[in-house]
Specification:
Radius of gyration: 18 Å
CATH architecture: 3-Layer(aba) Sandwich
Number of strands: 13
Oligomer: single chain
Largest sheet: 9 strands, mixed
């Protein structure tokens, strides 16, 4: 089973326009209103792919729709209710650039009592899990080393668990101290977190190898947008071009990439195949409207390419 952690869930309202212009009125088309939070997205993607998963984390006032949706999709979940309102994020998909402008609200403040309550459900879940996905932004009041704390706790409770970390900035840097099995940054996150400019593939690989050496990470899966993705270990480098699809939204692509990697690892597949699954699941996501996920038939179709 793969357990996902979402500490800052949300609702994602996705709209589209032909070309977003900051200096004039933009006529938009409402595409979708989806439950969100990166861990929740990974669990929904995994469920669609047929893999056992559980979504845990924190929830807020107005977040009942999240749990109703997970129940409807038969995804086990365990969320601690906190004070404050669920955040609502606006995503504007610019068709001309095939890019998404994200306007994300801050989460409500979370106190230590709610975090302590979450720890109990976290321990129960990780004891039964093969993979643990720690991903997404943090609510106000949650310490930036929370992923380090949770990662180390998970390894104490279940030494065989695979820890997958998808974060950025200080949250990523501190989470790396838990020595995750895999991290899944994109190029922007790598550049912003480590203060570098990645101009070539050699630059990307050199930074990934430094992360592996400095922090004890086993695998870095770096997404490169339209240029595909790369998997780096201490002795292997594998590239994949992006699968050519009709892009309808870039939302959730990274979360679907994580789900694809988890599916491949759960099957015991090679690094080559893991990258194939990751890239194809991401392609399946961006070819759908709003927050969309890849099903097994679509995955097999994309793998054949």
């Amino acid at each position: 089973m793969t357990t996902t952690v979402t500490l800052s869930p949300c609702l994602d309202k996705t709209v589209a326009c032909e070309r977003f212009d900051v200096d004039s009125m933009n006529r938009v088309e409402l595409l979708s209103l989806d439950i969100g939070g990166k861990g929740i997205n990974v669990s929904r993607a995994l469920k669609r792919l047929g893999l056992k998963t559980k979504a845990i984390g924190l929830n807020f006032s107005g977040g009942e729709v999240i749990e109703r949706t997970l129940e409807r999709e038969n995804i086990p979940h365990d969320f601690i209710k906190c004070e404050g309102d669920l955040r609502i994020n606006l995503k504007v998909f610019d068709r001309s650039r095939l890019s998404t402008i994200e306007i994300n609200e801050k989460s409500a403040y979370v106190d230590s009592n709610h975090l302590n309550g979450f720890t109990d459900s976290f321990i129960r879940a990780v004891r039964k899990s093969d993979n643990l996905v720690l991903t997404g932004s943090l609510p106000q009041g949650v310490p930036t080393d929370i992923y380090k704390t949770l990662g180390e706790l998970a390894k104490r409770e279940n030494p065989e668990i695979r820890l997958i970390l998808d974060a950025q900035g200080e949250v990523l840097l501190k989470g790396l101290e838990a020595k995750p099995f895999m991290i899944k940054p994109n190029l922007y996150e790598l550049e912003a977190t480590f203060g570098v400019n990645l101009e070539t593939n050699d630059d990307i690989v050199a930074l990934c190898r430094k992360i592996i050496s400095d922090y004890g990470v086993t695998v870095v899966l770096a997404s490169m947008g339209a240029n595909g993705a790369v998997i780096v270990t201490s002795d292997e480098v594998i590239y994949r071009e992006a699968v050519k699809v009709d892009v309808k939204s870039t939302q959730g692509a990274g979360d679907s990439m994580v789900a694809g990697a988890c599916l491949a690892m759960s099957k015991g597949l090679s690094l080559d195949e893991t990258l194939d699954y990751a890239v194809c699941c991401a392609a399946g996501a961006i070819s759908g409207i709003g927050t969309s996920f890849c099903d097994p038939d679509r995955l097999n179709e994309l793998l054949s390419k």
